[in-house]
């Protein structure tokens, strides 16, 4: 085969091209090494040193922030551009104590990002910093800053160039006072987080001028007044509005329903009243809604209002609709996307409605603290994904349905592997001191306590291997504790107290290595208390009110006969015995029971 003939001119051109390429690359490398990066400017170095001098505890920062070292090259947390201008200071969680003086960091004229979060800084926030002409991100969250949110200084009014601030995070400090009207000057603001402070007053109308806002987080303050003071219709980019735990009043303003990109809305723990408008269906992307602990009315209209909310997965509406009848309308079928539903503490009347069985995606269902009656529905096992069921403090009667033991997710060895979804907003527990971001943070829970359920604990209860919390307390259950309950090796909480259970305590309960709360008090159990494992960690109050029990913490087994004939007593005598027992041990258990109910029913803040 003949080799192709390459023209001489073509070969020569290629050689020249390669030579030029190599030469240019070498020249570029020489230029880079011959021209060291620009040094920190004297103005920026002085500003940083003034900040350092204002700290009462620098967390070891002075070791690298030395005057004899270039601040752009070796100072911890400092980043510069190619001109030697400081553009970023990032010092989160460094144990810094002290204040931020106006003449320090505000003097960094090229600063775009400042992160001093999770320290112990005190004093006020300099207005020159908040309204800096260059700053894009300001994060001083989780400190001890006090004073007010500074208004725009008079000298800065009438600025020719818009302020650049896009992210303002001052959450978890000690700020008080109102949000200044000058907040509207931050035209480029996208995220404002002022949660967990002591701020108060009405929201300024100028907040509606920040049309680029995507997140407004004002939870856990004392803001008040009517939300109608802000025209939310101009905030078309708003995705999350969190006003949890304030003192807002009035009704939900119609303008909120114009925020057509809103995905998460939380108005819980305020004083808002009225009805939920059908216009909430205009929020096509809404996936998280929490309005708990307000004074809303007409639960039937509320549920029908979500007929177009196809993306709604989390709905918390408890502590509203006081004393209303839970709707039985089977036309309520637009909630099929719901995964987490809480309608607790409303004193609702009626039976568990059939339309609930259509919510095939349910994972968490809380109907606790109502006045629901009738038997537990047999279709309860139709929820293939359900792993959290709380119907405590109602008036359900009849037996525990056998189908309850057939809930697929509670029988799974690893239910968490199937649940990886994050909440759009953190879900708070009890006193707002604990938060859950993921669905998997919730326990696998079955709580039927404080009802009027009868008969026996289902013998197959041990098949619900995923369970971590099991509470059948304060019912009228009889018979023995089934030995299969010892197969629930993930159990952390087991409460069977205040029933009519008889027979011995299963010995294998001492194999439940994760059990941290255990209560079988106020029954008619007998025989020795098992020893070993976690059983050795529980006090006598866990077993009290069972005169036939014996063990090291109670009467010795030598002084108590283990074989007793259980007399048949009338229902009136049982009720009388229960009342006396409750009074006798109320001092010991009252606080604990109250705590349990708060923990197990207040997951939705």
UniProtKB/TrEMBL annotation:
Residues 43-81 form the Leucine-rich repeat-containing N-terminal plant-type domain. SUPFAM superfamilies: L domain-like. Residues 1-39 form the signal peptide. It is a single-pass type I membrane protein. It is found in: Cell membrane. Keywords: Cell membrane, Glycoprotein, Leucine-rich repeat, Membrane, Receptor, Repeat, Signal, Transmembrane, Transmembrane helix. InterPro entries: Leu-rich_rpt, Leu-rich_rpt_4, Leu-rich_rpt_typical-subtyp, LRR_dom_sf, LRR_N_plant-typ, RLP23-like. One of its GO terms (biological process) is detection of stimulus. The keyword DNA-binding does not apply. One of its GO terms (cellular component) is plasma membrane. It comes from the Eukaryota. Belongs to the RLP family. PANTHER family: LEUCINE-RICH REPEAT-CONTAINING N-TERMINAL PLANT-TYPE DOMAIN-CONTAINING PROTEIN, LRR RECEPTOR-LIKE KINASE. This is Leucine-rich repeat-containing N-terminal plant-type domain-containing protein. The lineage of its organism: Eukaryota, Viridiplantae, Streptophyta, Embryophyta, Tracheophyta.
């Amino acid at each position: 085969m003949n080799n192709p003939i390459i023209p001489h001119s073509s070969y020569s051109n290629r050689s020249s091209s390669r030579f030029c390429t190599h030469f240019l690359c070498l020249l570029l490398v020489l230029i880079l090494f011959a021209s060291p990066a620009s040094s920190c400017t004297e103005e920026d170095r002085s500003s940083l040193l003034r900040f350092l001098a204002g700290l009462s505890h620098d967390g070891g920062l002075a070791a690298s922030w030395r005057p004899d070292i270039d601040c752009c090259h070796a100072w911890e947390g400092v980043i510069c551009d190619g001109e030697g201008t400081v553009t970023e200071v990032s010092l989160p969680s460094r144990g810094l104590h002290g204040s931020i003086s106006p003449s320090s960091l505000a003097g960094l004229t090229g600063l775009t990002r400042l992160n001093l979060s999770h320290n112990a800084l005190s004093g006020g926030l300099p207005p020159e910093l908040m309204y800096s002409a260059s700053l894009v991100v300001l994060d001083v969250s989780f400190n001890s800053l006090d004073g007010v949110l500074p208004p725009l200084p008079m000298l800065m009014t009438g600025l020719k160039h818009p302020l650049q601030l896009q992210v303002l995070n001052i959450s978890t400090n000690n700020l008080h006072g109102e949000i200044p009207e000058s907040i509207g000057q931050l035209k480029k603001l996208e995220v404002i987080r002022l949660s967990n402070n002591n701020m108060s007053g009405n929201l300024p109308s100028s907040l509606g001028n920040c049309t680029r806002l995507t997140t407004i987080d004002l939870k856990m303050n004392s803001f008040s007044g009517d939300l109608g003071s802000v025209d939310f219709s101009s905030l078309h980019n708003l995705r999350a509005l969190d006003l949890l735990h304030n003192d807002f009043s009035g009704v939900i303003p119609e303008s909120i329903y114009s925020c057509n990109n809103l995905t998460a809305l939380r108005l819980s723990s305020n004083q808002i009243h009225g009805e939920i408008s059908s216009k909430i269906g205009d929020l096509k992307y809404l996936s998280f809604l929490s309005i708990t602990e307000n004074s809303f009315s007409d639960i039937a209209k509320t549920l029908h209002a979500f007929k177009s909310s196809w993306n709604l997965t989390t709905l918390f509406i408890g502590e509203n609709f006081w004393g209303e009848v839970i709707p039985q309308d089977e036309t309520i079928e637009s909630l099929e996307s719901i995964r987490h539903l809480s309608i607790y503490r409303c004193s609702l009347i009626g039976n568990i409605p059939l339309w609930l069985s259509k919510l095939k995606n349910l994972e968490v269902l809380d109907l606790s603290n109502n006045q629901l009656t009738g038997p537990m529905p047999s279709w309860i096992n139709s929820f293939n994904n359900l792993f959290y069921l709380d119907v405590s403090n109602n008036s359900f009667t009849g037996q525990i349905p056998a189908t309850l033991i057939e809930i697929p997710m509670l029988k799974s060895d690893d239910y968490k592997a199937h649940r990886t979804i994050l909440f759009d907003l953190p879900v708070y527990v009890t006193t707002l001191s604990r938060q859950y971001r993921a669905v998997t943070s919730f326990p696998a829970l079955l709580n039927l306590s404080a009802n009027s359920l009868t008969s026996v604990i289902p013998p197959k209860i041990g098949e619900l291997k995923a369970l971590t919390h099991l509470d059948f307390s304060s019912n009228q259950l009889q018979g023995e504790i089934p030995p299969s309950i010892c197969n629930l090796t993930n159990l952390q909480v087991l409460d069977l107290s205040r029933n009519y259970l008889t027979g011995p305590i299963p010995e294998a309960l001492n194999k439940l290595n994760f059990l941290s709360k255990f209560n079988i008090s106020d029954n008619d159990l007998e025989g020795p208390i098992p020893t070993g494992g976690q059983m050795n960690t529980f006090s006598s109050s866990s077993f009290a009110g069972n005169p036939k029990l014996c063990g090291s913490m109670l009467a010795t087994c030598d002084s108590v006969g283990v074989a007793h004939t259980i007399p048949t007593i009338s229902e009136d005598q049982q009720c009388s015995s229960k009342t006396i027992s409750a009074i006798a041990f109320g001092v010991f258990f009252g606080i604990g029971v109250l705590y349990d109910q708060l923990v197990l029913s207040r997951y939705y803040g």
